[in-house]
């Protein structure tokens, strides 16, 4: 099939592809983020470009309780992604021994909160846990639990896929050498899954850091994650303060993802094919 | 060399409980029976090759010993002890698989130490045992490497060292050399044979589809075909007197011709060619005639005093036309079509200075003692 071949490999075609990328994707993906970054330093914005540069918005943040909000977001995301990873990994490992039909049901259960709009999930939590004995309304825990429920599907699916790819010869060799199932899990399976586990953790963390719609329904007054603050700031018209907060959120999330991916590259082994 | 001798002695001292027995083992996945009423005994210290085509159930048999499949019926014994209900990690075996399965996140040293730690060998002993196993497989000096930093052949040596370090009574090998190229394979075969000599207490069950590996290494060969044990015996006995056409074609190469009994020690090919065969008391009806290519000579047979003569007793002489000629360095393979049926016989003879042309009329001869009659079936 010469036509598709030359489309990708011809020199002219390659440049055309690059140009297409620059024209279509860069503006869509990168430009809005650049605009936010520019806005966070703007004194005002009435024309095509910001009117002047200032670090006043950041100075405001430093004086206010934004640091608290960042901490709340970090703690929530760490707790939620940790719990999601634990639950998702455990479910994926346990499901291996189960019949296929049960496995599919478990998977569907985890995916349900993703398929349903997260506003609905928030509302559902609000209603479900508003009465004793399960009275969680107005607690910090309900935010963490809601985030966990929203992101566990990603952890579960990523670990399930990694387990399916794992050559059973590793665990069987380990077992034949006399290793108990627990030793096989801790010393062979989990280390081999580590790259997938950290990838899943990073994804869950990023999703939780940015979660707004369910959080809006649930957050107590003493537990305001950063996205809620951004929403509040822009809602009252403080666009540039909101932009500065957004930059902080973005930078923190990226920094954490970068740190996680460093663990991952250290943990990735070339497996014999 | 002293170190080596001491290591060998130490390892021999640790090996106990060799021997494997399959006792009517049947394994099935859902409705498909992949191992059918399998009976086989591997003696302590014996190398048994499980030889058969792909899909014949060899790996399944090995997995039944290792404990990764549960027999539907029957028992598996290791060292005389019934292990059918034991989980894999309690069976005290060593296992080496085709894809090595070294743990990629551990150095060679940790890979070899893994089984020792799992079996709670005293901490102080581990380093010595690791060194001993690596030395035996020629991998000392690679202890600090990661598996990805080794070649395929080196990885397979480490896999063998890892399995031997725990001093198992039985070593299970599943096509251990098939991921290696031909030259490495020959070298590893020699090494495995040496390990077998050095560790006379160790039983090995060696799964392969490659007859040359089985012939080189095995004390006995068990030939498998479609979930069943076809034949079992020493390489020599299977070669000289295969029990079936299937075994004949799988152990060494063979000319297999459809025939029919006609008397005590003679069979008749299609079209009436009569052939004297190895005396076996005779039989009735359909049969398969088996003649090894290297036992067939080209031309008239030499007479008792030298010159060719068709009258040598118990010598078969057939006439046909050459339909194929292959030069193989030290030998020629000449294929001759026999009238009137057109059945083909291939002779493997010392390299000919003036090989016959295609279509040329030639004679071939073979002794009656080299013509073995097998049960019918298996002919092209
Ligand atoms: N887990 C399994 N589920 C279903 N069928 C299997 C499974 N493992 C092996 N088989 C079947 O069992 C038969 C024997 O397989 P195997 O023992 O691996 O053969 P060999 O090692 O001789 O090539 C094959 O037909 C294979 O398809
Ligand atoms: Mg196999």
TrEMBL record, chain A:
Q: Which PROSITE patterns match?
A: ABC_TM1 (PS50928)
Name the InterPro entries for this protein: MetI-like (IPR000515), MetI-like_sf (IPR035906)
How this chain sits in the membrane, per its record, is: Multi-pass membrane protein
Query: Pfam family example for this protein?
Result: BPD_transp_1
Q: Where in the cell is it found?
A: Cell inner membrane; Cell membrane
Domain spans labelled ABC transmembrane type-1: 70-260
**Listed transmembrane segments:** 20-42, 70-93, 105-130, 142-164, 192-219, 239-260
Tell me the leader sequence span: none
Sorted alphabetically, the keyword list is:
Cell inner membrane, Cell membrane, Membrane, Transmembrane, Transmembrane helix, Transport
Describe the family membership recorded for this protein in Swiss-Prot or TrEMBL.
Belongs to the binding-protein-dependent transport system permease family.
Q: What is this protein called?
A: Phosphonate ABC transporter permease
Automatic annotation (TrEMBL), chain B:
Q: Can you provide one Gene Ontology molecular function annotated for this UniProt record?
A: ATP binding
Record Pfam families: ABC_tran (PF00005), TOBE_2 (PF08402)
Entries under InterPro entries matching the protein: AAA+_ATPase (IPR003593), ABC_SmlMolc_Importer (IPR050093), ABC_transporter-like_ATP-bd (IPR003439), ABC_transporter-like_CS (IPR017871), Mo/tungstate-bd_C_term_dom (IPR008995), P-loop_NTPase (IPR027417), Transp-assoc_OB_typ2 (IPR013611)
Q: Which PANTHER family match?
A: SPERMIDINE/PUTRESCINE IMPORT ATP-BINDING PROTEIN POTA (PTHR42781), SPERMIDINE_PUTRESCINE IMPORT ATP-BINDING PROTEIN POTA (PTHR42781:SF4)
* Stated name of the protein: ABC transporter ATP-binding protein
Q: Please list which residues make up the signal peptide.
A: none
Q: What keywords appear on the UniProt entry? A: ATP-binding, Nucleotide-binding, Transport
Domain ABC transporter intervals: 20-251
User: Would the keyword Ion transport turn up in this protein's UniProt record?
Assistant: no
Annotated SMART domains:
AAA
């Amino acid at each position: 099939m010469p036509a598709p071949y030359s489309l990708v490999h011809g020199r002219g075609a390659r440049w055309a592809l690059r140009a297409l990328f620059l024209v279509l994707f860069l503006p869509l993906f990168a430009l809005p983020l650049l605009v936010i970054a520019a806005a966070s330093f703007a004194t005002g914005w009435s024309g095509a470009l910001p009117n002047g540069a200032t670090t006043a918005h950041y100075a405001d943040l430093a004086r206010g309780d934004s640091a608290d909000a960042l901490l709340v977001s970090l703690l929530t995301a760490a707790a939620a992604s940790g719990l999601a990873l634990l639950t998702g990994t455990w479910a994926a490992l346990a499901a291996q021994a189960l019949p296929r039909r049960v496995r599919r049901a478990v998977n569907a259960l985890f995916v349900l909160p993703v398929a349903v709009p997260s506003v609905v999930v928030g509302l559902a939590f609000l209603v479900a846990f508003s009465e004793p004995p399960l009275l969680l309304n107005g607690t910090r825990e309900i935010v963490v639990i809601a985030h966990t429920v929203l992101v566990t599907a990603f952890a579960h699916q990523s670990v399930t896929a990694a387990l399916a790819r794992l050559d059973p010869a590793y665990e069987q060799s380990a077992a034949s050498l006399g290793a108990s199932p627990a030793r096989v899990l801790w010393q062979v399976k989990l280390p081999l899954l580590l790259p997938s586990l950290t990838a899943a953790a990073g994804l869950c963390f990023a999703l939780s850091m940015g979660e707004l719609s369910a959080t809006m329904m649930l957050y107590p007054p003493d537990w305001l994650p950063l996205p809620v603050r951004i929403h509040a700031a822009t809602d009252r018209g403080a666009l540039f303060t909101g932009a500065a907060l957004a930059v902080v959120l973005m930078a923190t999330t990226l920094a954490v993802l970068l740190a996680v991916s460093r663990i991952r590259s250290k943990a990735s082994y070339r497996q014999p094919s | 060399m002293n170190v080596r001798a001491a290591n060998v002695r130490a390892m021999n001292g640790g090996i106990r409980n060799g021997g494997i027995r399959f006792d009517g083992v049947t394994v099935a996945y859902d409705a498909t029976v992949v191992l059918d009423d399998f009976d086989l005994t591997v003696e302590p210290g014996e190398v048994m090759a499980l030889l058969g085509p792909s899909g014949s159930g060899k790996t399944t048999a090995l997995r039944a010993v290792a404990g990764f499949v549960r027999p539907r019926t029957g028992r598996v014994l290791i060292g005389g002890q019934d292990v059918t209900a034991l989980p894999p990690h309690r069976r005290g075996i060593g296992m080496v698989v085709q894809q090595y399965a070294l743990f990629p996140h551990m150095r060679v040293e940790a890979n070899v130490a893994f089984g020792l730690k799992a079996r709670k060998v005293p901490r102080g002993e581990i380093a010595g045992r690791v060194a001993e196993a690596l030395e035996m497989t020629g991998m000392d000096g690679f202890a600090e490497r990661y598996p990805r930093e080794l070649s395929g052949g080196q990885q397979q040596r480490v896999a063998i060292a890892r399995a031997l370090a725990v001093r198992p009574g039985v070593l299970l090998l599943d096509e251990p050399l098939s991921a290696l190229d031909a030259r490495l394979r020959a070298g590893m075969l020699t090494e495995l044979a040496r390990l077998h000599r050095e560790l006379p207490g160790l039983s090995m069950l060696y799964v392969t589809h490659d007859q040359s590996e089985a012939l080189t290494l095995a004390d006995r060969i068990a030939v498998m075909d479609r979930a069943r044990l076809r034949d079992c015996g020493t390489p020599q006995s299977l070669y000289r007197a295969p029990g079936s056409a299937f075994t004949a074609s799988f152990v060494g190469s063979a000319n297999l011709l459809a025939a029919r009994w006609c008397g005590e020690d003679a069979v008749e090919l299609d079209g009436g060619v009569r052939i004297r065969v190895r005396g076996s008391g005779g039989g009735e009806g359909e049969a398969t005639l088996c003649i090894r290519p290297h036992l067939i000579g080209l031309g008239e047979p030499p007479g008792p005093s030298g010159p060719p003569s068709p009258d040598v007793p118990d010598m078969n002489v057939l006439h046909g036309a050459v339909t194929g000629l292959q030069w193989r360095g030290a030998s020629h393979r000449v294929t001759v079509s026999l009238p009137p049926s057109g059945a083909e016989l291939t002779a493997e003879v010392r390299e000919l200075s003036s090989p016959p042309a295609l279509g040329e009329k030639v004679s071939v001869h073979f002794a009656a003692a080299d013509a073995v009659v097998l049960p019918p079936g298996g002919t092209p």
